[in-house]
Amino acid sequence: MRRMKKDATYLGLxxxxxxxxxxxxxxxxxxxxxxxxxxxxxxxxxAGRACLxxxxxxxxxxxxxxxGNFLDIESRGSDSGMWKAxxxxxxxxxxxxxxxxxxxxxxxxxxxxILPNNRWNVDxxxxxxxxxxxxxxxxxxxxxxxxxxxxxxxxENNGNFSIxxxxxLLKGGxxxxxxIEIWKLIWHSPLHSRLKFLWWHxxxxxxxxxxxxxTILEGISxxxxxxxxxxxxxxxxxxxxxxxxxLWFQLGWSIRTELVNVQSWMQWTEWFKMDSNRPSSMSFSDxxxxxxxxxxxxxxxxxxxxxxxxxxxxxxxxxxxxxKTIDHIMVSSKAVPEILSWAPxxxxxxxxxxxxxxxxxxxxxxxxxxxxxxxxxxxKTSMTNVNDxxxxxxxxxxxxxxxxxxxxxxxxxxxSDNLNVVNEFQDQASPVFNIKIQCNFMAHNIAKWATCYxxxxxxxxxxLPAALLDDLIEWNPGL
Length: 479
Fold this sequence. Notes:
The protein folds into four domains: 44-96 and 152-174, no CATH class; 109-142, no CATH class; 180-333, no CATH class; 350-474, 2-Layer Sandwich (Nucleotidyltransferase, domain 5). Helix content is 43%, strand content 11%. It has helices spanning 21-24, 26-36, 39-42, 46-59, 81-87, 90-96, 108-111, 122-128, 131-138, 163-170, 178-187, 193-204, 210-213, 234-240, 242-251, 265-273, 284-306, 314-332, 389-407, 419-424, 441-453, and strands at residues 9-10, 13-14, 97-100, 150-153, 338-339, 350-359, 362-370, 376-384, 412-416, 432-435, 457-458. The chain is extended.
């Protein structure tokens, strides 16, 4: 048997770790550098570089424990120091992991409360639990298909693991302070990534102004290149410089910067967050898009003069900022299209309206499919123990999508009268559109009818009363 070398690798990764960590990871560093070495030729912005790093990182091969469970693996004396350090994360994961019950076969005491048809045994649940607990349990929707249970991460609302929530868990869940809130305001805003990076650079005072460069490099003048009247700090360049003052007054709703007492970019942001300092009809995100476009316009003109290009007239700078602002606001605003009256879908498309009827024992989901000539293609109803309106509306949309898949239907426009549900589905491949409840009575009427007569499954439109099949009039079972 031959002895392995200390620099032996397996699947491209070093098997042994030495005291020189830089040497151990040199191979990975070189691999990443090879992937991103074309940055200089591409001249990417900071937002573009962030996207490129994400793309390169996701394309690199990763290896996992196939056929094993990371939580069950124990550290051995022969393991490398790197692997032992990885295994130390087990205790951290166990604090935030939770088992999500799906088919429930892996949890014996849960399976006892589920019928063979994968429905809750309502009578048994109500006998064994208090009224409030039984209500919460019955609102947990069980899948129609038999799927395995899975793990979720309690640190995030979507159940996906994240480094941010893990760091918060390690710190003991300390309350977030105002400093963290401002970063959340930036990165969670609907602004374009380039404007987010610019905003972040402002608050961190990280832009390479001449005032900062002159302190570390010799032979550089620190005077503002736009006015030559003061040291070029970021606050002077974008706020107190005469060139900036003119733009803020002409483009920023007649803002007189000399009358706004701000000494830092944090104070500057807080001033803009005040409702009284912006038009009442404009949201904060649109206001910041306009504001940051002004800052970007000043920075671009400053760089243009710095490299010796011809000075641009301030009126032309103003026009360019105005056009760019319009583009950014149009991109960042993702308004949900609202349908004021039901209309047939375009040619070769189908329209699916969904709604629910809530009762004390649960809810009934209903979906109706129609073609471009308003002909009813299919009607589907389903009973569930869920009596939470928001959850039931979401389940109705999911039921409609499942039914469309089982029938082999394509090109479908889904419509719901619950705006919260519509917003949650906007990032999906087939978004859901909002329709006024006054125009969605056909699906609502079918749900009410199915509740009264306890009907579940596919139903023919010929079997329904004509009064149900109306989009603008609610069905009254007493008539």
